[in-house]
Amino acid sequence: MRTAVTKFLPLALLFLSSPLMAQDNTGSSNTLMLTLLALVVLIAFFVLVQVADNLLRIQAKKVAPGADPDATSVFPSLRGIFRKRQPGYVGDAAVTELKQGYDIRLEGTAPLKIDGRTRATTFAVQPPNFRGVAPIPKMVVEVGQKVKAGDHLFHDKKVTDIKYVAPVSGEVVAINRGERRAITEVVIKADKDIEYRKLGKFDPEKSSREDLVNYLMDCGAWALLRQRPYDLVADPVAVPANIFVSTFDSAPLAPDNNFVVQGREKAFQKGLDVLNLLTSGKVILGLSANGGEAPAKAFTEAEGVEKHWFRGPHPSGNVGVQIHHIAPVGAKRVVWTLGVQEVITLGAVFTEGRFNAERVVAITGAELKEPKYVRTFIGANVGELLKNNLANDHVRLISGDVLSGRKKEAENFLNFYDDQITVLAEGDYYEMFGWLLPSKLTPSVSRSFPNFLFPDAVYRADTNMHGERRAFVVTGQYEAMLPMDVLPQHLMKAILTNDYDGMEGLGIYELIEEDVALCEFACTSKQPLQKILRQGLDMMHEQG
Questions:
Q1: pLDDT (tens digit, 9 = 90+) per residue, 327-355?
Q2: Which of 61, 215, 497, 506 has the fewest Cβ atoms surrounding its Cβ within 10 A?
Q3: CA distances in angstroms from 18 to 6, 23, 28, 38, 102, listed in the order given
Q4: Could you tell me which residues come within 8 angstroms of residue 459 by beta carbon, excluding any fewer than 6 positions away?
């Protein structure tokens, strides 16, 4: 806008000056000439300042990618003038405002109250949840064996020091296998009263980083750490540039971490303290500026961390989006990430002296009789958590949210990093004429439906895709859904054509499946973008 003005204003002045210069009065002409000369000088000065301002913005973005561009500008932008006032609880802190994205408002939000009546009795640790682990890990238990919470179950054959442990005490009742005899589940029938493996006393503040890493690998807490790029279990040899924790989840029906952290503030802070000993950089918290009320004090008053505020629609809560706007990852720049409940479990290793795999899980969805929060443990049985709570039997059970979660059956188990179950109606039906006929409100970013007229509407969704897979055409939809300087459509085509240089240049290292899940939801071509991205990430990882 400002550039256009600087281009055309001199031309306009020349056109205006032509008839004025034709005046006979010499004195008036001299005055006009001086006035025009002064205007030209002012315009030239303005252009120079504008160029300098643009260069300043570019340099600031290189030095501090997460900085507010208006904070480094000489001129206020229209966005800066008309932006919403930031919440008072943010204070003077900068807020990263994200415009791209979309909030899918669904029925079935769980009220903020723990239901103590719901309990699971069987739990499982699932090796496929840990990327980078061999499909057939080395088992150290067998069916029928008794274990305590925190006892070793298996370890990777490549990195034998990282132990994967039992979330509860009880009897190992099954070791289930899938394709090519890969181990898919180690199932434990839990005791009524959980017994814990007692961990030896360890003071991380007085120990070396190497000793701390060895301690975490042995007690089972190392599996809580995930590494970007590729979303793998963290490499114990690597030292991350930073460690990121997003304190809010913007996905549909996601658990409220302000509620989840209540009563566990001490363990959360201890977890942050331990993370500080593992990185050469900083522990960075992503905080939400979306709500009318401040986030929990456990987040806003956390010590020893750097805090960054974000405001905008989903996927603003994705840690990958936050990393991109603060300190992007690269092929040689490794960072680690954790969720709020993983930080709590890590801290509890030191505050309680045990591997406490307790989880607060949100059971959500419109097909439930009663959405609710329950207190359970990692890997709880899905069917037991949903017992007598389904409104009907024709439903899809999802471990996680509707965008990036995984389909489960009642006999399956929550994935290791998930703290949400979503229940949707199965959408196995056909619509005559589809969007051509008036219909009920359907969650969609397309203006073929009248959703945009009702921005606060809440939807009762199902799994129907409303169309079949189509030609993969350039639409610009993905860029409107992803608040990152990445071209997702071109990246997907680079993956499909095995263009390694293209994948790297287009930012594949910054993404994992959850970051493109909203793009997949909006995709007119119905492309499986998360599957395609994982294919590309696996190819790049194999290439080293």
A1: 999 999 999 999 999 999 999 999 999 99
A2: 497
A3: 20, 10, 14, 17, 52
A4: 104, 105, 106, 107, 441, 442, 443
Using DSSP's 3-state secondary structure scheme, residue 294 falls into coil
Burial letters for 282-294: b for 16+ Cβ neighbours within 10 Å, e otherwise?
bbbbbbbbbeeeb
- Nearest CA among 367, 430, 363 for reference residue 396: 367
In eight-state DSSP terms, residue 89 is: G
Q: How far apart are CA 339 and CA 419, in angstroms?
A: 10
Q: Which residues of the chain have pLDDT under 50?
A: 1-9, 11-23, 66
Residue 288 C-beta-side C-alpha neighbours within 13 Å: 23
**Chain centroid to CA 362: how far?**
17
Q: Please check whether residue 312 is in contact with residue 99, taking contact to mean a CB–CB distance below 8 angstroms.
A: yes
Could you tell me the residue ranges of all domains in the chain? 2-83, 122-351, 465-544
State whether residue 2 is helix, strand or coil: helix
What pLDDT is attached to residue 2? 47
Q: Is 521 helix (H, G, I), strand (E, B) or coil?
A: helix
Contacting residues for 385 by C-beta, under 8 A, at least 6 apart: 118, 120, 361, 363, 374, 376, 414, 421
Q: Do 434 and 399 touch, CB atoms closer than 8 A? A: no
DSSP 97-159: E--S-----BS-PPPSSB-TT----EEEE-GGGSTTS-SS-EE---TT-EE-BT-EEEE-SSS
Question: Residue 527 corresponds to which tokens in the numbers above?
Answer: 């492309």
State how far the alpha carbon of 489 is from the alpha carbons of 251, 265, 486, in Å.
22, 41, 9
CA distances 200 to 16, 140, 226, Å, are 86, 21, 25
Distance between CA 439 and CA 459 in Å, rounded? Answer: 13
Q: What is the pLDDT of residues 302-324, one digit of tens each?
A: 999 999 999 999 999 999 999 99
Tokens of 353: 């002296």
DSSP summary character for residue 1: -
